[in-house]
From TrEMBL:
The lineage of its organism: Bacteria, Bacillati, Actinomycetota, Actinomycetes, Kitasatosporales. InterPro entries: Dodecin, Dodecin-like, Dodecin-like_sf, Dodecin_bact. It comes from the Bacteria. It comes from Streptomyces luteolifulvus. Transmembrane segments: none annotated. PANTHER family: CALCIUM DODECIN (PTHR39324:SF1). This is Dodecin domain-containing protein.
Length: 75
């Protein structure tokens, strides 16, 4: 039986992913870690990109992320 689609409700949290390899890997590391404790991850938005420099070289990258996840319907 067809049921009308119920609108989803999302919660947003902010995290920071890091990597020595680059921005893309920092995003992937952040999402992988968030998925260990948050259910129903649905989307992300990059809010910041920064890095740490040591001895004139890039030591690691940090990426600020907003992560959206669906709140489960309890009805």
């Amino acid at each position: 039986m067809w049921a009308p689609h119920r609108p989803s409700l999302f919660r947003v949290t902010e995290i920071v992913g890091s990597s020595h390899e680059g921005v893309d890997q920092a995003i992937r590391n952040g999402i992988a870690r968030a998925s260990q404790t948050l259910r129903n991850l649905d989307w992300f938005e990059v809010t910041q990109v920064r890095g740490q420099i040591e001895n004139g070289q890039i030591e690691h990258f940090q990426v600020g992320l907003k992560v959206g996840f669906r709140i489960e319907d309890t009805s």
